[in-house]
Amino acid sequence: MTALKSVFAGLQNWLVNTFKLRSLRTKFILSFVALSTIPMVILAIFSYGVYHDILQQNIQSYTSEVIDRVDRNLEIYLSDLERILELRNDYYNLQFIKLSLAGDVEGNRKFTFRLWENLNNIRNYKTELRDVSITTIGGVTIGCYGVTHTDLSQNKLFQTLANRTSKENSIAIWGPHPDWLGGPVFSVGKAIHGDYDNFLGMMSIDVDVELLDRICGNIRLGKTGYIMLVDEDNRIIYHPNPELIGKMIGALLGESSLTDWQQDFTTKMGPGNQLIRVKTFAPANWKIIGLSNRFELATEMQKITGLALTIIVSTILVLTLMAVYFAHLLTNPLKELQQSMRQASEDLNTNAVIHTMDEIGELSETFNQMLARIRQLMNQSVQEQEKMRRTEMRALQEQIKPHFIYNTLDLIIGLLETNKNEDVINTVEALGAFFRTSLSHGQELITIREEVEHVRNYLYIQKIRHGDKYNYVIEVQEQLLNKKTIKLILQPIVENAIYHGVRELETAGGLITIKGFFMEDAKTVCFQVIDNGVGMDPAKMEDINRCLRESGTEQRYFGISNVNERIRLAFGPEYGVELSATPGGGVTVTIKLPVVM
Question: What is the pTM of this model?
Answer without folding.
Answer: 0.44
